[in-house]
Design goal:
The complex is a heterodimer. Chain A is an all-alpha fold. Chain A has twelve helices and two strands, in the order H-E-E-H-H-H-H-H-H-H-H-H-H-H. In chain B, helix 4 links the parallel strand 1 and strand 2. Classes of the chains: A mainly alpha, B alpha/beta. Chain B: It comes from Paenibacillus donghaensis.
Chain lengths: 296, 459
């Protein structure tokens, strides 16, 4: 095979514009934010350098912080658990339906809707009975009166109600990725397997899974990192309330920076979030590289 | 050969693109700092001259004044007020253009904060009194308005003492759009339906009424507690009573008392008894303030504890004519109903760095002078912070408006809202702590402790 020989200089020219944009718009703000995290600053007046005091406060004294981390991680795990389901669905669609594409497009619809619209939509679904909430209405008409809840205002349930909306919204997204991955596996492989007597689950075990691992990984990383940063849906539906019951890391960051006028403290939470994303990306990549090596 | 040439061209094109990207990067700082002020950027050529020349000689130059405001609802009288006054001023001063940047309250708060961080406050913006505007004043973002207040007798139009809430070191930094009190609006028809003959004068009676209304399937008290200030406003009225008068938060700030004071704990308990009696709508914490108000305005709730600024809006709603208002009752026999939660309004402040400071001051002077007249015309004069000439009754104001105006005459003093008194960080802890009372029963001593430790941490 002929490998294209390109001088390093040319590569640099091609990469530089994007790299510069990236540095300007992403990297420098992150560095600034890390620095701001070391300040006691209301965002307006003179800042005071306090070193790691914000981080000490965050890790040791803030009663809101750790619960929000727990909720965020649970959010991320929940959104990862949905992906095997998407894969199974993609395989079934690919195997039994000729018009799979249409169906996938339909599942994809929620992804293109604005999160604000999704939030408002589900708020009306979750509303209490007295305000005509659809979910409660449905439960009552099924005779399950005792199952009704104030889905978004009972502290124990509220967060799970939000998880569910998020899973619903991104199901189509991950399904599309998995479906495309499955479609790209050449049919000849399956035909050859059938001749050898491997069909159905067995074919999936030895052909589909090994070949889909990289795609699967992309979905996993996207889902995980995406939900670590979850903000908009929570903001629209509950704004972190009632009384912090649905606060995730990013809403705590927002509330501190913009409502409590603790911009420095908010930035230190942002720093934590960046590090968390970084660490988990590395971990997921590491785990999947192992998996890929095992299959290949 | 040909291939090589095209390759070189390609590299050149890319380098050009690269240079452009770099330029964009370098410029981003300048662009960012102009966000509050689009037209100013377009006018940069003339700006330098204008600031040096006296205002009246530059009368033929086009000047644009950005007016950030929080009156987005076209049906509301205040929206009409801002638009009509701006248009009138533009007509009289053809060289001035008033650029209205209209946002809702929450958006405006965040936008202003972001603009303040880059020291680019719009020419005129909106702030809340006392503690909430202090960080901005400390940073020197606002221009003192004392000189301008002296012109055309503007200062004398304000009710005595009102401007103090907007003054720091004897300088006035903002002009309020209103001066309100917290009252209990009630729906006379629903009270009648439930067989309640007279409005409650004690908290115990109020609780009793809540239970009666609840039994009849009527929501007793409307509220939208997703915006947590609404619950806090009501709670603070209870505290005003259990404390036997105003000044509790001031005492805490002066170190004379703590949040673990019996008066505070008693107020938390009283508030919880209201929640436990089912006074508020289901899922109150997921309803925002506007939707909460609509529960009352559409005749589904019997009472609404809110500021008198809603008078005009209630008159314009479907329950108009059926609504009366009364003072918040005494709690456990304590407090004086003639002491109210006071709500000096959101206020207009001028940017100290404004490119057209003189023109902005002139406009605001005109605006503030004419505001009471215009509000009176629009039947929205109840609760404004300036003296109004004219007979409400003769001008066709509703009974409710006259009722509220009567309550104003009884004001013997009171307290400001929590977030106008305490620093923002403590206020946020307070707001979510009160919000929590709506969804679960909490030990009142625990609530007090939470407040105290937040106060100490953010002193």
């Amino acid at each position: 095979m002929k490998v294209l020989k390109v001088p390093a200089r040319t590569i640099a020219v091609f990469i530089l514009p994007c790299l510069l944009l990236y540095v300007c718009l992403v990297f420098i703000p992150i560095l600034v934010s890390i620095y701001t995290g070391l300040l006691k600053w209301d965002g307006i007046n003179q800042a005071e350098f306090v070193g790691l005091a914000n981080f000490r406060e965050m890790f040791l004294h803030d009663p809101v912080f750790w619960p929000s981390v727990r909720r965020t991680l649970l959010y991320a795990v929940a959104s990862m658990l949905e992906i095997p389901l998407c894969l199974a669905m993609a395989i079934l669609l690919n195997r039994y339906l000729r018009k799979g594409n249409t169906l996938v497009s339909i599942y994809f619809t929620p992804v293109i809707l604005s999160v604000v619209i999704i939030g408002q939509l589900w708020k009306t679904v979750y509303n209490p009975t007295s305000m005509g909430g659809m979910l409660n209405g449905l439960l009552i008409s099924l005779g399950l009166d005792s199952w009704t809840h104030n889905w978004l205002t009972e502290p124990k349930i509220a967060m799970f109600s939000i998880y569910l909306v998020s899973l619903w919204q991104y199901f189509g997204y991950h399904l599309l990725i998995q479906y495309t991955g499955v479609r790209n596996i050449p049919d000849e492989l399956y035909e050859a397997a059938r001749i050898d007597g491997a069909d159905g689950i067995k074919a999936d075990r030895y052909i589909t899974f090994p070949l889909i691992v990289p795609i699967f990984k992309i979905s996993m990383v996207l889902a995980f990192i995406g939900s670590l940063q979850a903000f908009d849906l929570v903001m629209v539906m509950t704004a972190g309330g009632p009384a912090h019951a649905t606060d995730v890391i990013s809403t705590v960051m927002y509330n501190n920076s913009f409502l409590s006028f603790k911009y420095g403290y908010g930035s230190s939470i942002a720093t934590f979030l960046v590090v968390l994303c970084l660490v988990f990306t590395v971990i997921i990549n590491f785990l999947f590289n192992k998996l890929e090596r095992k299959f290949s | 050969m040909v291939q090589k040439k095209s390759k070189t061209t390609f590299v050149w094109v890319l380098s050009a693109a690269l240079a452009l990207t770099l330029a964009a990067c370098g410029n981003s700082n300048n662009e960012g700092s102009d966000t509050g002020n689009k037209d100013a950027a377009a006018n940069t050529g003339t700006n330098t001259k204008e600031t040096t020349a006296p205002a009246n000689t530059s009368s033929d130059k086009k000047v644009s004044i950005t007016f950030q405001n929080i009156y987005p609802d076209p049906a509301a009288p205040s929206y009409k007020m801002v638009h009509e006054l701006s248009e009138q001023y533009e007509k009289e001063h053809p060289n001035i253009h008033i650029e209205l940047d209209t946002l809702n309250t929450d958006q405006q708060k965040v936008k202003l904060k972001t603009q303040a961080a880059s020291k680019e406050v719009p020419d005129i913006t909106i702030v809340n009194p006392a503690a909430q505007m202090k960080p901005f004043v400390d940073a020197g973002l606002f221009a003192p308005l004392n000189d301008m207040l002296g012109q055309n007798g503007l200062k004398d139009t304000y009710q005595s003492g009102l401007l103090d809430y907007y003054s720091f070191n004897d300088k006035v930094y903002a002009l309020p759009d209103g001066n309100n009190i917290e009252v209990v609006f009630y729906n006379k028809e629903l009270f009648e339906q439930a067989g309640i003959a007279k409005t409650p004068t004690t908290f115990e009676e109020m609780l009793q009424d809540v239970k009666i209304l609840k039994d009849k399937g009527i929501t007793p008290l409307a509220i939208g507690e997703k915006d947590s200030w609404t619950g806090s406003f009501l709670f603070m009225n209870i505290l005003l009573r259990t404390n036997g008068g105003p000044g509790f938060l001031q005492d805490v700030q002066d170190g004379k008392r703590t949040f673990e004071d019996p008066a505070f704990i008693e107020a938390v308990d009283a508030f919880q008894s209201l929640v436990q009696a089912g006074a508020f709508p289901d899922g109150a914490t997921s309803i925002d303030a506007t939707a909460g108000g609509n529960i009352f305005k559409s005749g589904k709730a019997a009472m609404w504890v809110i500021g008198s600024w809603e008078t005009g809006a209630i008159d314009a709603s479907s329950v108009s004519g059926k609504v009366g208002a009364f003072q918040f009752p005494t709690v456990n026999g304590k407090g004086d109903p003639n002491e109210f939660m006071l709500a000096p309004g959101s206020a207009f402040a001028v940017s100290a760095n404004s490119e057209h400071l003189q023109e902005t001051m002139d406009f605001l002077n005109f605006f503030a002078l004419n505001l009471p007249k215009k509000q009176f015309e629009l039947k929205n004069a109840v609760g404004i912070g300036q003296k109004v000439d004219g007979d409400l009754k003769a001008a066709g104001y509703s009974d409710l408006a006259i009722n509220i105006a009567g309550l104003f005459n009884q004001v013997k003093g009171g307290d400001l809202a929590f977030d106008n008194t305490m620093n923002p960080a403590t206020a946020q802890v307070h707001l979510s702590s009160i919000q929590n009372l709506f969804v679960q029963k909490v030990d009142s001593a625990q609530v007090a402790k939470e407040h105290q430790s937040a106060f100490e941490a953010n002193k």
